[in-house]
Amino acid sequence: MKKLFFTVIIAFVAFTFTASAETIAPQITMESVSDTVKLKEYAGKYKFVGLPFEYMEITLKEGVLNVEAGDQGGPMTQDKEVPEKFDVAGEALFKFVRNDEKKVVKVVVEYQGMTLEGTKDK
């Protein structure tokens, strides 16, 4: 009798877990799509002056922003508290700046104690 009761409880828990997993999945997908749309605003080529390279390129691949500067680069991690701020491997901070029309127009990069500013190509 105890084994039957235990089996019924396990089956009920497994069924409940499966049902809740199915209802959560679409919500995660919806958020990922909207996040990807928001991240596209940051993608583009940013022109810098006085660096060994003229441009930094920020691309969106598989829902993750990536930066390429000369022969270096890597994935960008968004700051949870400041949406316009991203970290690259703990080595550089990228802060995006918008104009009055709310369009991303430049990026400010903090790297090794320097502050660099690049304007977005149109």
SSE arrangement, N to C? HEEEEEEEEE
Mean pLDDT: 76
What does the overall shape look like?
globular
- CATH topology heading of the largest domain: Lipocalin
Helical residues, percent: 25-40%
Let me know the largest β-sheet.
9 strands, antiparallel
Low-confidence stretches: 1-9, 11-34
Adjacency order of strands in the biggest sheet: 4-3-2-1-9-8-7-6-5
By DSSP, the count of extended strands is 9
* Percentage of residues in strands: 35-45%
How many domains make up the coordinates?
2
Q: Which class of the largest domain in CATH terms?
A: Mainly Beta
Structural class: alpha+beta
Give structural notes:
The chain has two domains: 40 residues; 80 residues, Lipocalin. The protein is built from one helix and nine strands; from the N terminus they run H-E-E-E-E-E-E-E-E-E. The protein is of the alpha+beta class. Strand 2 and strand 3 form a beta hairpin. A nine-stranded antiparallel beta sheet has the order 4-3-2-1-9-8-7-6-5, covered by helices on one side.
